[in-house]
Amino acid sequence: MPDKLHHTRGIVLRTVKYGETSVIVAIFTELFGLQSYLVNGVRTSSKKGSGKANLFQPSAILDMIVYHNELRQLQRIKEFKWGYVYHHLLSDVKKNAVALFMIELLGKCLKQPESNPDLYHFSEDALLHLDAGSATVAANFPLFFALHLPVFFGLRIQDNYSSARPYLDLQEGVFTTDAPYHSFMLEDKQAFITSQLLKVQQPEELEDIKLHHEFRRSLLQAYEKYYILHIQDFGTMRTLPVLREILG
């Protein structure tokens, strides 16, 4: 049975060099979820290959015509071009560090090649907002993304915070009246700000949340713990130390 051609958008997650001129690219696609593609001839210095490799850097949004066969682990791309040309995200050091954090987090949560268009649209929309956002919005974006991403994996943190429920139990994903019997929790300002971030519907609202960079760092560390508790084989985030440095 011949492979069928499909038109889909996709977000590049990671690229590995293959042979002299080719790459294998993990792309989160709108139609098929996580897929791996073999792309030939993009690393040559010839006219044909020149400049094409930079379309496969992490966070790039592509518009593609792809061959798809359910039985293959490695798919092929017939045509590809920018789906969106960023204005700042690839050139602004801080925004790029945030984008790479988001891409790594997304990649660690995607385990199976299954279609999830809602998650795709949330992720693409988040990258576009980051590209257009102010410095404050960009600085708060890792927190926003880390808290809203779990919803698409059935891991929503329940926003039931109140002065009577001031503890966030990271293991259960709920705010509680009493401190839990384990150390995986947030309290005081950390719990309150997490509740504020959970209420954010549009990334522009992040402008109103003023935080010190040390405080952001401690929250990001706590959110990483949340993922370690809930996502199998999560490991640790390689982009987090870089992000901490740059946002500091």
Topology summary:
Layout: E1 4-18, E2 22-29, E3 33-39, E4 61-68, E5 74-82, H1 93-109, H2 117-132, H3 135-148, E6 167-169, E7 174-176, E8 185-186, H4 188-199, H5 213-230, H6 239-247
Parallel strand pairs: 3-5
Antiparallel strand pairs: 1-2, 1-4, 2-3, 4-5, 6-7, 6-8
How would you characterize this protein structure?
- This protein is α+β, with helices and mostly antiparallel strands.
- The protein has two domains: 4-82, Nucleic acid-binding proteins (OB fold (Dihydrolipoamide Acetyltransferase, E2P), Beta Barrel); 93-247, Recombination protein O, C-terminal domain (de novo design (two linked rop proteins)).
- It is 35% helix and 22% strand.
- The chain has six helices and eight strands.
- It has helices at residues 93-109, 117-132, 135-148, 188-199, 213-230, 239-247; strands at 4-18, 22-29, 33-39, 61-68, 74-82, 167-169, 174-176, 185-186.
- A five-stranded mixed beta barrel has the order 1-2-3-5-4. A three-stranded antiparallel beta sheet has the order 7-6-8.
- A hairpin with a 3-residue loop joins strand 1 and strand 2 (22-29).
- Helix 1 (93-109) packs antiparallel against helix 2 and helix 3 packs parallel to helix 5 (213-230).
- The protein is globular, with a radius of gyration of 19 Å.
